[in-house]
TrEMBL record, chain A:
Keywords: Cell membrane, Membrane, Transmembrane, Transmembrane helix, Transport. GO terms for cellular component: plasma membrane. GO terms for biological process: transmembrane transport. The keyword ATP-binding does not apply. Residues 65-276 form the ABC transmembrane type-1 domain. It comes from Kiloniella spongiae. This is Sugar ABC transporter permease. Its main location: membrane.
From TrEMBL, chain B:
One of its GO terms (biological process) is transmembrane transport. Its main location: membrane. GO terms for cellular component: plasma membrane. It comes from the Bacteria. This is Mannitol ABC transporter permease. Residues 72-262 form the ABC transmembrane type-1 domain. CDD domains: TM_PBP2. It comes from Kiloniella spongiae.
Length: 286, 276
């Protein structure tokens, strides 16, 4: 293939992604510098950085940043640790293994909105939910999960969906582990933990890096799970940055402030992206 | 007990543990499907009913009341359309990058992947206003275009890796024999890359089908997808658990079954072909 043809073939993907990045982003930056509220269309004009000031000094801002970090951090820890443990647990021949695998990975394919509603209603509802029924049965006071522990509830809901993702990747990767090496290690008297640290974990280094990276991409902007369960509440207890911007824009109609928030979210995501891509990016290509 | 017996017992415990964990993880899905066959009263009965006379009323009711088929059709069109559009753009690009790489190729791919990290909320308003201006709000077209764009980076990454794995020697040999570029693509590369292209498309369809953010914010009754229809059940007025369960079961069933059948392909896609 000659150079021109190569360029010609590459161009479409690069151009559409450049446009997808530049057009909306520059509009967002522009909106963030002007007064733009859908409720007061007569108020216009350049306002400099005051939208940013408003967004950052909003009482909801610090909790939203904290909630975003706690949410991403906890789900990553839970899914990787639990995913590793379960993948190793089922990495042995036994009857019904195929069914166990299918049951374990199913939650990952459930729509996030369905996932969130099933948990909100049928599991965590304080009167009719199964958790409340179980609490009653053992004589405890049922808990209104989404009101008392809103962020924890969202973490549980998201982890239920993403631990199966980690299981799926780790279990596939474990199948390509060298079994003879493990048998030799067992004969030499290496116990479970010695084998885990020296053989299994190094073998899984790349899958773990990939699981972390993909989950980070999806979790920084978790929206549907919060939208249908707690709506960010009570107060700001389960508001993350994505939901805070959404609330500014579509509930309070303040396009200017919401856009400032959008720019902030983009910067935050980029900081994370730079670190992540430096750390694992090169691992992703053969 | 001998060592062998101890090992056997350990193994039994592990298997019992595996089943227990599997049942716990699967339970909410089982419960959702079960609830979809209950009446609304049975759904909130205390203690919860495990044995009851199943009814299909919910499935017929949602059909009558919510235009389920229309939402399902939107999901099918936007998932397949978005995937097809993205593949159309990605296949030639990834092909060119894999077989004639330059020093900048890997950086371009990483840049593409980094656009995936741009949070959707950051660009929601411009996209909303642009689609409003173009008269595309609540149409399937806008979702097809957006789904193609948000999945393009991942698709490029996976296809690039698949194309790279095709041994260069085969191509060089065929070039020596004077094969044209077109024949090279259709007769040598495509048959070898077919599996990779199929798993990439599968993953893209799954991601589109489950996508909720853009569907909720850009569409309503005309082009709403199943993910948006389900979200509309989140309103606090009244508990319609069994109807919700019926809608949810129908919305999830195709993708879950799909996932069961194509585990291997999806793992390869999800890890950009880096885990086999």
């Amino acid at each position: 293939m000659n150079r021109t043809l190569v360029r010609l073939l590459q161009a479409p993907s690069i151009i559409v992604l450049l446009m997808w990045m530049i057009v909306p982003l520059s509009m967002t930056i522009y909106f963030s510098l002007i007064r733009y509220n859908l409720l007061y269309p007569e108020r216009t004009g350049f306002v400099g950085l005051s939208n940013y000031e408003f967004f950052v000094t909003d009482a909801a801002f610090p909790p939203a940043v904290l909630n975003t970090l706690v949410l991403v951090g906890s789900v990553l820890c839970i899914s990787v640790v639990l995913g590793l443990a379960i993948a190793i647990l089922i990495d042995r021949p036994f009857r019904g293994r195929g069914i166990v695998r299918v049951m374990l990975i199913s939650p990952f394919f459930i729509m996030p909105t369905v996932n969130a509603l099933v948990w909100k209603n049928m599991m965590m509802n304080p009167i009719y939910g199964l958790f409340a029924v179980i609490a009653h049965a053992v004589g405890a006071e049922p808990i209104d999960w989404l009101t008392v522990y809103p962020l924890l509830s969202v973490i549980i809901i998201v982890s239920w969906q993403w631990t199966p993702f980690a299981i799926l990747i780790f279990m596939t990767s474990l199948q390509s582990q060298d079994q003879e090496q493990k048998e030799a290690a067992t004969l030499d008297g290496a116990g479970f933990w010695a084998q885990f640290w020296n053989l299994t974990l190094p073998h899984l280094a790349r899958p773990i890096a990939i699981v972390l990276m993909i989950q980070m991409i999806f979790h920084l902007s978790i929206f549907a799970e919060i939208f249908v369960t707690t709506s960010g509440g009570p107060g700001t207890a389960s508001t993350n940055i994505a939901y805070l911007i959404y609330a500014q824009a579509l509930l309070q109609f303040d396009v200017g402030v919401a856009s400032a928030g959008g720019v902030f979210a983009v910067i935050l995501a980029n900081i994370v992206a730079i670190f992540l891509i430096r750390a694992v990016g090169k691992n992703l290509m053969v | 007990m001998t060592d062998k017996q101890i090992l056997e017992w350990k193994n039994r415990f592990a298997v019992a543990g595996a089943w227990l964990v599997a049942i716990l993880f699967f339970f909410p899905i089982f419960w959702m499907v079960l609830t979809s066959f209950k009446t609304e009263l049975q759904a909130i009965a205390i203690p919860p009913l495990l044995v009851f006379e199943p009814t299909l009323d919910n499935y017929t009711l949602i059909q009558e009341r919510t235009d389920y088929t229309q939402y399902a059709w939107s999901s099918v069109v936007t998932s397949l359309g978005g995937t097809a559009l993205a593949m159309l753009i990605a296949i030639p690009s990834a092909y060119a990058m894999a077989f004639s790489p330059t020093r900048r190729t890997k950086d371009i791919l990483l840049w593409m992947l980094s656009t995936k990290m741009l949070p959707a909320v950051g660009v929601l308003l411009p996209i909303y206003l642009l689609s409003q201006k173009l008269g595309l709000l609540d149409t399937k077209i806008v979702l097809v275009v957006i789904y193609a764009l948000i999945n393009l980076p991942i698709i490029m990454m996976i296809l690039f890796n698949y194309f790279r794995e095709i041994p260069k020697e085969i191509l060089e040999a065929s070039r020596m024999d004077g094969t044209s570029t077109w024949n090279e693509i259709t007769q040598i590369v495509m048959p070898l890359a077919w599996g990779g292209i199929a798993s990439t498309a599968l993953l893209s369809v799954v991601l589109c089908w489950n996508e909720a953010f853009w569907a909720i914010n850009l569409t309503s009754s005309e082009a709403g997808t199943l993910a948006a229809l389900v979200a509309s059940f989140s309103s606090p007025e009244g508990l319609f658990w069994s109807k919700l369960s019926a809608v949810a079961t129908l919305a999830c069933a195709p993708i879950v079954v799909f996932g069961w059948l194509c585990q291997k392909q999806l793992v390869q896609g999800l890890t950009f072909g880096a885990v086999k």
